[in-house]
Write a structure and sequence with these properties.
Blueprint lengths: L2 H10 L1 E3 L1 H18 L6 H5 L9 H6 L6 H20 L3 H18 L2 H17 L16 E3 L1 H24 L7 H7 L16 H21 L6 H18 L4 H9 L7 H21 L1 H4 L37 H4 L2 H7 L9 E3 L5 E3 L1
Helix pairs in contact: 2-5, 2-12, 5-6, 6-7, 8-10, 9-10, 10-11, 11-12
């Protein structure tokens, strides 16, 4: 198989769209999480000159800050579009609205938050080509679509890590000799928090600096191999978890990167997760008395009708206790022919017919 055939099988082969639909939800949740804490400070962040650092293309158009009403309107449109997008209602129109609103708001944002905001905006652009619209087809089966756009999104995300390691090495030797980690962890502006509250020694800084470079390279390549993918996904979570505990970098950055991991889950993993969720739902429904014994409204106050007395009940095939033999008189017992006909074996309810008086006759 040539490399072109391999690439075609990798990019154009139809696979379940479960990961694409899940990423639609995680990226939408991150976008809402980004702006929810900012609602009370929208005017200070976007409509005043205090913190506003507009992007270069926006500075070329105008230097005046937008009115506060326009900012509130943009955020309201963004929230409504995100809710529609997550619910699967008019997803393509909602996608366009989200992309335009994010482009304007990120362009008005500060430089630091614009760094990972730009990553999110790029992924919102690539997401347009991902088949995220519908999870199941008309027959109720999970849809299968070519995954070239999802692969592109995965490649863009994974490339951030080795490119970051390459930039750290080319820029200077501070990450190899540990100076970058030492200065960051012991800085009152960027470090001295939680795990780094007591500072970091030079020896530990060297280990952390070299370890950061190795982990970033491993993540970038390990995510694409089935055997190393689980370990690489764990490395992404651990890397950003440790980063959040040792530096004052926003938690939104780590949340954005972890949100991409749903793209790397295999179809078998999604299938097993679906089976487990159905088992949990079935277990809960069986243990819940309201779902285990459904009843109509008002039926809980009704008492079951009393059973008729045993003497008045009509013997039937479902009541084996009423199946008895009729006593045979002594005169009949003297006739061997009658004895042969009336001596009946124990009743088998599956092959016998029960008479109204309880006598069993073989079929």
């Amino acid at each position: 198989m040539s490399w072109l055939d391999r690439f075609e099988a990798w990019a154009m082969h139809g696979e379940p769209v479960t990961g694409a639909v899940a990423y639609r939800l995680t990226l939408t949740a991150w976008t809402l999480l980004y702006f929810v804490p900012r609602i009370a400070h929208l005017e200070e962040l976007y409509a005043r000159e205090v913190l506003r650092e507009p992007a270069f293309w926006l500075r070329a158009l105008t230097t005046a800050p937008p009115p506060a009403e326009a900012v509130y309107g943009l955020v309201a449109i963004l929230f409504f579009a995100c809710l529609c997008f997550a619910a699967g209602k008019a997803t393509r129109f909602a996608h366009i609205a989200i992309f335009l609103c994010l482009g304007l708001l990120f362009s008005l944002d500060t430089t630091m938050t614009r760094a990972y905001g730009t990553i999110a905006l790029i992924h919102w652009g690539i997401l347009w080509f991902v088949p995220y619209d519908q999870l199941r087809d008309d027959q109720g089966e999970i849809r299968r679509e070519p995954q070239w756009s999802t692969r592109l999104l995965m490649f863009q995300f994974a490339s951030i890590y080795p490119l970051s390691a390459f930039a750290k090495i080319v820029d200077s030797t501070q990450w190899i000799d540990g100076r970058a980690v030492y200065l960051t962890a012991n800085s009152p502006d960027w470090g001295l928090t939680l795990l780094s509250s007591g500072g970091v020694s030079q020896e530990v800084a060297v280990v952390l600096g070299i370890g950061t470079l190795i982990i970033e390279v491993f993540i970038g390549f390990g995510l694409f191999h089935p055997r190393t993918r689980p370990l690489a996904m764990i490395a992404v979570i651990a890397f950003h978890g440790i980063l959040a505990l040792t530096t004052r970098i926003s938690l939104l950055f780590g949340a954005l990167m972890i949100a991409h991991l749903v793209l790397f889950l295999s179809p078998e993993t999604w299938r097993s997760l679906g089976v487990q969720s159905r088992r949990i739902a079935a277990t809960r429904s069986s243990t819940d008395p309201q779902t285990a014994m459904p009843s109509s409204p008002g039926s809980s106050s009704r008492q079951p009708a009393p059973s008729p007395p045993m003497a008045s009940r009509t013997p039937g095939a479902s009541d084996a206790r009423n199946c008895r033999r009729v006593p045979i008189s002594s005169s009949r017992r003297r006739d061997p022919t009658i004895d042969k006909q009336t001596t009946v074996a124990p009743v088998d309810l599956t092959t016998s017919v029960i008479s109204p008086v309880g006598t069993s006759f073989p079929r």
